[in-house]
Write a structure and sequence with these properties.
Elements lengths: L2 E3 L2 H13 L9 E6 L8 E6 L10
Antiparallel strand pairs: 1-3, 2-3
Length: about 60
C-alpha cells in the first residue's frame, strides 16, 4: 500500500502530487480501491502497487 485516507480532498491532492512530481510510478501496476462505508463507516481511499511473486515461475 502506498497511500490511504478517508479524506477525499486529501486523496485527490495526493494523486495530483504523484502525477506532477519528479518521481514516476508505473500506473499499470497500481490498484485504486474505494471502500464505500455508507452510513456505518466513512469511505476509505487506497492506492496500492501490485508486487510480483518472484518466488514462483509463471506457467
Amino acid at each position: 500500500m502506498l497511500f490511504e485516507t478517508q479524506d477525499e480532498s486529501e486523496w485527490h491532492a495526493h494523486l495530483r502530487r504523484l502525477r506532477s512530481g519528479p518521481q514516476r510510478i508505473d500506473w499499470a501496476l497500481t490498484r485504486v480501491d474505494t471502500f464505500c462505508g455508507r452510513l456505518a463507516q466513512p469511505t476509505t481511499y487506497r492506492l496500492s502497487l501490485f508486487v510480483p511473486d518472484r518466488g514462483q515461475p509463471r506457467p
